[in-house]
Specification:
By secondary structure, the chain is mainly alpha-helical. It contains 27 helices and 7 strands. The strands form 2 sheets. It has a 5-stranded mixed beta sheet with strand order 4-3-5-6-7. The longest helix has 29 residues. It is globular, with a radius of gyration of 28 Å. The termini are far apart.
Length: about 625
C-alpha cells in the first residue's frame, strides 16, 4: 500500500508539474508583458522611452479631446480613452511601437450610434446641468453610455474572433483594400469637421450619401459661415502643417520635436480667455471639463441590440488599421506579432475601458509614427504617457475650458494627413496592377457613399467571390515566400527544401513522403494535383516565388535560383518571380538564359496570377 501511495504521489506531482508548465507557457503566450518586462534594458531603453512617452502624452491629450468630439461625446471621455486602453494593450499587445487609444475612424463610426439613439439637443459642452456622475449632464452621460456600449460590443466581437482563430483570415484584406478604406474614412472624418471649421450650426447628417448631403447643406447655408471661426481654423491649419513639415524635415537632427498641437491649444485658449472670444464673437469653446477618473460602471445591456452594426464596424475597421501598424512595426524592427493575439489585445482594450466611459479605441498612424521618430523602444513609452495623462486629468483639464472647437477640428484634419496622402497610392497601383487600382477606387467609392465598415465588407465579399470563381483555374499554382537572404551558406538547403515542397504538394511527378521542417520558406497553396488527373495535363503547373523578403543575395544564391528555374522547366513547371529587387532581376538576366515567350518577373503576386489566368484563357480559346 505504501508503494502504491508513493507511486500515486509521484504521478500527481508530475501532473502538477505539467499543469504548471502549461499554465506558464499559456501566460507567456497570452500576456506578452511577462516576456518583455523581465528582459527590459533599463540603462539603454529608459531614456528614449521616457522622451517618446512625453511626446506621445501631448499627442494623446490633443487627439483624445478631438476624437471625443468627433464621437459626439464630451471631450473628457477622450482623455479616459487615451488612458485605459493604452494600459490594457501594453499588457496583452505584441506591437512594441503600437500607440493605441482614441482613433478617428472608430470615433466616426460610434458617432452614428450616438446621434441616432441620443439626438443632439445642443452643439456645445458649456452647459452645466449636473448629474450624479462626474458633474456632467444626463444628456452627456446618455451619449457616452451609447459610445461605451459600442466599444464593449465591438471588443466582445474581437475577442470572439480571437477565440475562433480568425486572425489568419486577414489575408482577404489586401493592401489596396486597407489603403482605400482608411483614405475614404479619413475623407468622412474631414467632412464631419466642416461645421466646426466654418463655425456653422448644422444638424447631424448620416446614412447613405451623407457625404454629399453635408456639402449640399454647406452650399445652401453658406451665408451662415462664421468668419472669425473660419479665419482661426485656417490659421491653425497653416501653423500645424508648416511646423509638422519642419519637424519631419529636421527629425534626424533633433530628437525632440516641437509639440505644436499643445502649443496651439495653449495659445488659442489663452487668446480666447483674454479676448473673450466666446461671448464677443460667438466662438464655440469646449467648456467645463471635470477632473479625476470615474468609478467603473458596466455599459447598458439594453443598448447593445441597437448598436450591432456600429460594433461590427468598430471591430473590423479598428482591428484592420491596428494590425497593419503592428505588422509594419514588426517588419521595421525585426520581430513578430501574432494576428490572433492582436485580436485579443484590441478586444480587451475595448471591453475593459468601456466600464470607465471610454469611446472605441484602436492604434493610430500618427501616434505610431511619433514613436518611430522619437526613438521609442518598447511599450514603456506608452505607459509613461499614461502617467502624464493622469496628471492632466487631475490637474490641468480645467484650463481647457476656453479651447475653441474650430482649433480642435483643425487638429483632427491635420492629423489625418498621413491617411489622406494615400491618394498617391493610385499612381503606384496603376503602374503595378490595374486590378489593384480598380479595387482601390471601388473600395473608396463605396466607403464615401456609405461608410468605412460597408466599404470593408464590400471588398471582403468581393475577394471571397473572386477566390471562389478562380479556385479551379489556380489549382496548379504554388506560391512560395522567400523569407531570408540567399547566400552560399544556405543556398543548397534552399534548393533542396524547395524541391521537397514541390514534390510534396504534387507539382512534380515525383512524390516525397517525408519532408523536414523548412525554415527558409513559407508555402501557400490553392490546391494540388495528385496522380494522372486530367487537370494536370490541361493546365501547366506554375511555381511563384515571392521574393519580397529576399533582401540580400550573392553569386551562389543567384546560381541556385537559375538552377531552380531550369530544373522546373525540365519538369514542365513554369517559374514566376514576384516582388524582385531590380538588382536581383539584373543579376539573373546576366547570369543565365531565362528568356521565355511569357514574362518571368512581376511586381506583385496578384499580377503574376493575372498573367497565369490570361495565358490559360488564351490556351483554352486556341484549343477550341
Amino acid at each position: 500500500m505504501t508503494g502504491a501511495k508513493r507511486r500515486r504521489d509521484t504521478v500527481w506531482r508530475k501532473i502538477q508539474a505539467v499543469r504548471f508548465e502549461d499554465i506558464k507557457a499559456w501566460c507567456m503566450r497570452r500576456l506578452p508583458i511577462l516576456e518583455w518586462v523581465p528582459a527590459y534594458d533599463w540603462k539603454e531603453n529608459l531614456v528614449p522611452d521616457t522622451v517618446s512617452g512625453m511626446m506621445l502624452a501631448i499627442q494623446q491629450v490633443t487627439q483624445g479631446l478631438a476624437f471625443a468630439v468627433l464621437s459626439s461625446v464630451h471631450p473628457v471621455f477622450g482623455l479616459y480613452g487615451s488612458f485605459f486602453p493604452v494600459i490594457v494593450y501594453a499588457i496583452f499587445g505584441m506591437g512594441r511601437h503600437v500607440a493605441t487609444g482614441t482613433f478617428a475612424l472608430t470615433s466616426l463610426i460610434s458617432a452614428n450610434a450616438v446621434e441616432r439613439l441620443v439626438p443632439s439637443v445642443r452643439t456645445n459642452f458649456t452647459a452645466n446641468n449636473n448629474s450624479t456622475i462626474l458633474g456632467l449632464s444626463e444628456f452627456e452621460m446618455q451619449r457616452i453610455g451609447v459610445a461605451a456600449a459600442v466599444s464593449f460590443l465591438g471588443g466582445i466581437i474581437q475577442v470572439a474572433m480571437f477565440m475562433l482563430q480568425l486572425g489568419s483570415a486577414t489575408f482577404l484584406l489586401t493592401e489596396p483594400v486597407i489603403s482605400a478604406m482608411t483614405t475614404g474614412a479619413a475623407t468622412h472624418v474631414v467632412t464631419s469637421q466642416v461645421k466646426y471649421l466654418l463655425g456653422m450650426k448644422m444638424p447631424y447628417i448620416s446614412g447613405p450619401l451623407a457625404f454629399f448631403h453635408i456639402y449640399a447643406y454647406v452650399i445652401e447655408n453658406i451665408r451662415s459661415v462664421q468668419l472669425e471661426a473660419l479665419l482661426l481654423s485656417l490659421l491653425s491649419i497653416v501653423v500645424l502643417v508648416v511646423v509638422k513639415e519642419l519637424n519631419e524635415k529636421f527629425q534626424r537632427n533633433i530628437k525632440v520635436v516641437l509639440p505644436i498641437d499643445l502649443l496651439l491649444i495653449i495659445a488659442t485658449s489663452t487668446a480666447c480667455y483674454y479676448a473673450d472670444l466666446e461671448y464677443v464673437y460667438g466662438i464655440e469653446v469646449v467648456g467645463n471639463i471635470p477632473k479625476g477618473l470615474p468609478s467603473p460602471k458596466p455599459p447598458s445591456l439594453s443598448v447593445l441590440p441597437e448598436v450591432v452594426t456600429e460594433a461590427f464596424g468598430v471591430a473590423l475597421v479598428g482591428y484592420v488599421a491596428s494590425l497593419a501598424l503592428a505588422q509594419g512595426s514588426a517588419k521595421k524592427f525585426k520581430y513578430t506579432v501574432d494576428d490572433n493575439q492582436e485580436f485579443l489585445a484590441h478586444g480587451l482594450s475595448n471591453v475593459i475601458p468601456s466600464f470607465f466611459f471610454c469611446i472605441p479605441s484602436a492604434a493610430a498612424m500618427g501616434r505610431t509614427a511619433l514613436l518611430y521618430s522619437t526613438g521609442a523602444k518598447t511599450q514603456v513609452a506608452c505607459l509613461i504617457s499614461c502617467v502624464l495623462i493622469l496628471v492632466v486629468i487631475y490637474a490641468i483639464v480645467p484650463l481647457l475650458y476656453w479651447l475653441p472647437m474650430c482649433v480642435l477640428a483643425s487638429i483632427i484634419v491635420v492629423g489625418l494627413k498621413g491617411m489622406l496622402m494615400q491618394f498617391r497610392d493610385l499612381k503606384k497601383y496603376w503602374k503595378m496592377d490595374k486590378i489593384d487600382w480598380s479595387i482601390w477606387v471601388s473600395t473608396y467609392v463605396f466607403t464615401i457613399c456609405f461608410a468605412a465598415n460597408v466599404g470593408l465588407l464590400y471588398e471582403t465579399i468581393y475577394w471571397n467571390v473572386l477566390l471562389a470563381h478562380h479556385y479551379e483555374s489556380l489549382k496548379q499554382v504554388k506560391i512560395v515566400s522567400v523569407n531570408s537572404p540567399l547566400v552560399f551558406l544556405n543556398a543548397r538547403k534552399f534548393h533542396a527544401d524547395l524541391l521537397k515542397i514541390i514534390q510534396k504538394d504534387g507539382l512534380s511527378s515525383q512524390v516525397c513522403d517525408d519532408c523536414e521542417q523548412n525554415t527558409l520558406l513559407c508555402s501557400f497553396s490553392n490546391g494540388s494535383c495528385h496522380g494522372e488527373s486530367q487537370s494536370c495535363h490541361s493546365d501547366r503547373r506554375v511555381l511563384i516565388l515571392d521574393c519580397c523578403g529576399l533582401n540580400f543575395f550573392d553569386y551562389t544564391g543567384v546560381s541556385v535560383l537559375l538552377q531552380i528555374y531550369m530544373d522546373c522547366k525540365n519538369r514542365h513547371i513554369d517559374v514566376l518571380l514576384a516582388h524582385c529587387k531590380a538588382s536581383l532581376i539584373k543579376a539573373m538576366q546576366y547570369g543565365g538564359n531565362i528568356e521565355s515567350e511569357n514574362p518571368v518577373f512581376f511586381e506583385s503576386i496578384s499580377s503574376a496570377i493575372d498573367a497565369i489566368q490570361i495565358h490559360r484563357v488564351r490556351l483554352k480559346s486556341g484549343n477550341r
